[in-house]
Amino acid sequence: MVDNSVIVEKTIRKNKTQTKRVNKKKASASKVILYAVLIFWAVTTIFPFIWVIINSFKPSAELLTSSFSLPKEFTLDNYRNAFNNLNILRAYGMSFLISGSVTVGVIVLSSMMAFAMTRYKFRGKVILDGLLIASLMFPVFSTIIPVYQMMIKWGLLNSATSVILPQIASNLSFATIVMMGFMRSIPIDIEESAYMEGANVFTVFTRIIVPISKPAISTVAIFSFLWSYNDLFVQTTMIGKRANYPVCALLNEISSKYGTDYGLMAASVTIILIPVFIVYLLLQKNIIKGLTAGAVKG
């Protein structure tokens, strides 16, 4: 006679095998759908950049007749016009001056604010924390008129400073919240040990907190630089002289003044995108790490 326990054991094994096969089929089907969605998203995201780069090497007449094909002959005339007639290099210098100053200012101020908010107890701390979050809901359009009037009274209009100060103020809340989330995850014991060894607050902040917070600082630097670099609204509002235009404001002028020269526009867009790609490629590894650090404890 066959033992019932053996039959039951074989049945259980058979059911487990069938269950694993079904789960594998479901997993493979879900992966196919996931990869299909990601590939579609990647293609729709990357294609416009490739399209602009390819068209930047075409003459404007050819671009109008066949914009979705490879150029019949590659030409650099569009890039020559961009550098010679539009003075792209001067606009680049203005953009790097503004974006670099904004990035440094935001990093310094947000890191100090985050350190104070996470390590000290003081009256009004809860209110200040709420104001930081609430300030994210106010768009720059709602404050541009009083800020513009302030720049006129201070005599800063049409200068790099008139763009740097508003951009630092608009980016500071987000940067401080990111830095606070990271610093809350840093063990307080490290700082207490440094204080017991005779270190002061400045030493603890510069020698311990700042080096540990490099991922969050990199994240803040990336977003601050990109937001400042692409902030066309503040640039065109505060700077009215063409000689002081940053590169994005200059592109806006190209689209209106040279609206029919699509080859020049494509070349100018390509030139403008180069710094964005370089900054992102150099610091992309720290974006997610800086944003998610401290998410459990914070």
From TrEMBL:
SUPFAM superfamilies referenced in this protein's UniProt entry, alphabetically: MetI-like
Transmembrane annotation, as ranges: 32-54, 91-115, 127-151, 163-183, 204-227, 262-283
InterPro entries: MetI-like (IPR000515), MetI-like_sf (IPR035906)
PROSITE patterns noted in UniProt: ABC_TM1 (PS50928)
Localization per Swiss-Prot or TrEMBL: Cell membrane
Main location, first listed in the record: membrane
Organism domain of life: Bacteria
A Pfam family the protein falls into: BPD_transp_1
Residue stretches making up the ABC transmembrane type-1 domain: 92-283
Membrane topology: Multi-pass membrane protein
This protein's UniProt keywords: Cell membrane, Membrane, Transmembrane, Transmembrane helix, Transport
Protein family per UniProt: Belongs to the binding-protein-dependent transport system permease family.
Identification of the protein by name: Carbohydrate ABC transporter permease
